[in-house]
């Protein structure tokens, strides 16, 4: 069977989570690096594959194209231990994955892009990005007081989806020092995935 092809950018947490799931599950894949700042997602060839003009997206072995990071990892992990079998635990996993795209990524990842890539002054940014990012980190810290992973006692897609930008939060101007459980969780997830710590 031909390998999966992942189109992504190595600086993007949304892209990395797809790569990590494929690696963790031992799926053969080819990584195609896309230069997003240079307009790499907007070329005619790329738009022909993914009209949404974003990465990540994958070309499956049968030629089908699938986009949106959390949809991709859910497809890749179908039938594996990364998706809990129990209905409530599975729903908790999905709850966190939906929350990640609505209440975490829009603040922590967006602030990172503004500071780390565009070099903007923190004083010029919308203060709600920092406020709501801190809200997200506090919620995760509190939730990790109940179980070692977000949806229970085992690593799931929820953890992979949320660790991607959480471990980069210092580049967004967030200090993780007050969040002991969150820092321990990041280390657990990195160890479970076999990836090194983010410098």
TrEMBL record:
Domain GST N-terminal: from-to ranges: 2-84
Gene3D superfamilies (UniProt xref): 1.20.1050.10, Glutaredoxin (3.40.30.10)
Organism: Methylobacterium komagatae
PANTHER family reported in the protein's UniProt record: GLUTATHIONE S-TRANSFERASE-RELATED, HYPOTHETICAL GLUTATHIONE S-TRANSFERASE LIKE PROTEIN
InterPro entries in UniProt: Glutathione-S-Trfase_C-like, Glutathione-S-Trfase_C_sf, Glutathione_S-Trfase, Glutathione_S-Trfase_N, GST_C, Thioredoxin-like_sf
Transmembrane segment boundaries: none
Name used for this protein in its record: Glutathione S-transferase family protein
Source domain of life: Bacteria
Domain GST C-terminal residues, every copy: 86-199
